[in-house]
Amino acid sequence: MACLNTEVHGQPWQSHDGSDAGTPTSKPTLTRRAVAAGNDTEVCPAGVAPGNYEYAAGKGRDGQGVSYGIPMMQADRLAAVANKGNVLFCLVLTGIDERNKDIPKVKGCIPGTPRVPGGPPRDCYPLTGVTRGDGGMVALSIIGALDNSFGLKGIIPDANAYIYSVYNTSLPGTFPEPTGSALVAGYKDCEAELDARKANRIPGTPPLNMVVFSDGFVTEGVDAVAAYSKSVTARRNDVMFVAGAWGIFDENETWVDVTPASFPQFVAIASVNKDFESSTGTELPVNFTAFSAPGQFIMWTSLLSDYNLDALDAWGQRKNTIAASPPLDGVQADFWNSPPPGAFAGSAVGSVAAGLVDCGLGNSTCAGAKGKICLIQRGGSTFAEKVLNCIKGEGIAVVIYARDNQGACERVTGNLVGVVVNDTVVTSPLPGGWPVVIGASLQQGKALLSALQAGKLTSLTITSPARTPTKVPITFSDTSSENYNTYYAACMATGALGALWSAHPSCSRQQILAAVSETAKPKLNSGLPDWEVKARYGKGLLQVWDAHEYLVTNPCKPTPTLTITTSLNSKPFPKDQKDTDAAGQHFGGTGSFFKVTVVVRNPVTRNAVSGVPVTLALDPAGLASCKVTQRTTGRKVGAVWSCSHVRGASGALTITATSAESAWYASATSSITVTL
Fold it and tell me: Which Pfam family is an annotated match for this chain, by its short name (predicted)?
């Protein structure tokens, strides 16, 4: 994707320009529990970030975090059985930067770099010091972030991945949406990389399968995406395409095919939150959505040096504080750090101690603010306007707390830099810029307000410290969209499906998806009509451990590989046939023959398998025909057909071979296209 969304470099509860976007009723409420009147001062659960559920409990702002979405999909339980060497993740997205020490070292390439046909695995991607957008970094850290003492832990740590930077550009920050032909070039490179790695595998090792993830709005040539993905899934069972379930309807409410998820070859993933609730933004036409996965407040790792926003609250980077004097009655020791006070881009660095004044929503000059810290609730105007109204009242610092419809424990972070209102940038009139501004949760803000109104608060001390070095040059973006972003959900699903496949490498794509379909958690009692449930949730929430147990009980038979060759690219057959071109290929004429050979091979040993019935199909039928449709493979030569070319007919002929299921092998299909 060229840009995750307009809020990625802003903050999750405001628009990119710093406005407090949306009416309170237009966004989902992530209420963990009700906020009682007065001073409900229960400490929020530890170890969390936005929405108070992102990181693993007990991890907090120090150490390594685990996304809530991983156990929600049961993917954490696959750690004991997954084998990263059995699955290749090919990400056709933006790029990465290898200076991020929390992501795997991967190989990759960029457009315009030809690959040697049949050549070895390659690496032509300029990783070091290159910023090519966030998409690759987001996907790779969600799927495969390392299991170390810092950062995030991915679904399948240190994943085996290949990056094709389809958004490659010489202009940093400029990422035009790709054309269909550009995406297909990426898919072809992924397929070639898979084949190169398969060729390098030691005989006897488990099969290698590939999950391809791509996203984006296809500007033109979307039919090429449909045709190529259909071709791949028809001729091989070791490739799975995944994409976020999103797109557009036109003014006539007709679906427009502009995203990969528009096509059935892609496993389209809808987005849900921690409570398994969907958003209207993830709808697709009925039967388009395959499954759903967590997509709200999904965290990822990135380089701190790539961002200048102070509001990117990295662990170990900022620790804003609030301290009331005297301490509030009934407030536990860790209350003011649960969640940690949010940071605002553009805020001054320092500590302020003063009395507190209630400024309401701060939508006008705050009376009585002189020399005090302004307590302002979110809503109704931009953060910059609220702070400006505090300054106009001669206030010296600001605490902005959450709206009434936000969860009691949600953090508030924001941006004061470059905010535009009525075509004018809002700036601070103070010589040093904006004062100290920090965010507070709804619970924290209500506790301050209650104490102030009861006359029990003498002064408040707030601190916005300077950045301090981290153990490694990475940060954790607090900027995952509040909206239910299907990109994040598809990243989650890609990792979970790949981890499951790595534990069952002998299964085909179809067998993996069948197991997932059988075990997905359906959305029940939603109050929605059936068609809307299907559009928003698909078959349900991924439950990959249940799918693993299903496959243990119902093990997959190995899926053989089928190799199809024709005499069109070798010597004529039969030898006495005279109607050939200069290259020896048969064209036209009554009785013009060509040979088709299909070899069935064990996917592990690669040895040819005999005694397997194979059915051959030709499309279109008007170009050629074979005397029989089914033959059985022999020990040395496979199954061989003698077919005839119809007089005067010409064009592309698709030859499809399908092996029958046997006691030892699953059915397999492969196809090639030749020109007559």
Answer: PA
| Nearest residue to 380 via CA among 391, 389, 367, 372 | 389
DSSP 3-state of 272: strand
Sign of the four-CA dihedral 523, 525, 530, 533: negative
Band (530; pLDDT cuts 50, 70, 90): confident
Phi/psi of residue 502, nearest 5 degrees: -65, -25
CA 185 to the chain's CA centroid: 21
How far apart are the C-alpha atoms of 409 and 341, rounded to whole Å?
11
Residue 341: Cβ-neighbour burial (10 angstroms; 0-12, 13-18, 19+): buried
Task: State yes or no: pLDDT of 4 exceeds 50.
Answer: no
Please say whether the beta carbons of 454 and 330 come within 8 A: no
HSE value, Cβ hemisphere, 13 Å, CA-based, for 361 = 9
Instruction: Based on the fold, state whether residues 222 and 334 are members of the same structural domain.
Output: no
Residue 181 resides in a domain: yes
Residue 613 has what DSSP assignment? Answer: E
**Token digits of residue 162:** 């290949």
E strand spans, 315-467: 321-325, 342-345, 350-354, 356-358, 373-377, 397-401, 414-415, 420-421, 424-425, 436-440, 459-464
Phi, then psi, of 459 in degrees rounded to 5? -155, 165
Q: Coil, strand, or helix at residue 538?
A: coil
Domain assignment of residue 390, given as a range: 27-50+318-466
CA torsion sign, 504 to 510 to 514 to 517? positive
Instruction: Tell me, yes or no, whether 62 lies in a domain.
Output: no
Whether residues 443 and 326 share a domain: the answer is yes
Q: What is the DSSP letter of 33?
A: S
Which class for 135: exposed (0-12), middle (13-18), buried (19 or more C-beta within 10 A)?
A: buried
Q: Are 486 and 246 in contact (CB under 8 A)?
A: yes
- Which residues contact residue 79 at a Cβ distance below 8 angstroms, ignoring those fewer than 6 apart? none
Residue 345 in 3-state DSSP?
strand
The tally of CA atoms less than 13 A away on the side-chain side of residue 311 is 31
Query: In this predicted model, what pLDDT tens digit does every residue of 549-608 receive, in sequence order?
Result: 999 999 988 888 888 888 764 334 344 334 333 333 333 444 477 889 999 988 777 788
**Cα 160 versus chain centre, distance:** 16
User: What number of CA atoms fall less than 13 Å from residue 115's CA on the CB side?
Assistant: 26
- CA 331, 334, 339, 344: dihedral to nearest 10 degrees? 90
Q: In Å, how far are 40, 195, 335, 603, 615 from 609, measured between CA atoms? A: 71, 21, 67, 10, 15
How many Å apart are CA 378 and CA 360, to the nearest integer?
9
Evaluate whether residue 61 is within a structural domain: no
Question: What mean pLDDT value characterizes the chain?
Answer: 77
Q: How far apart are CA 223 and CA 257, in angstroms?
A: 8
User: What distance in Å separates the CA atoms of residue 40 and residue 449, rounded to the nearest whole number?
Assistant: 12
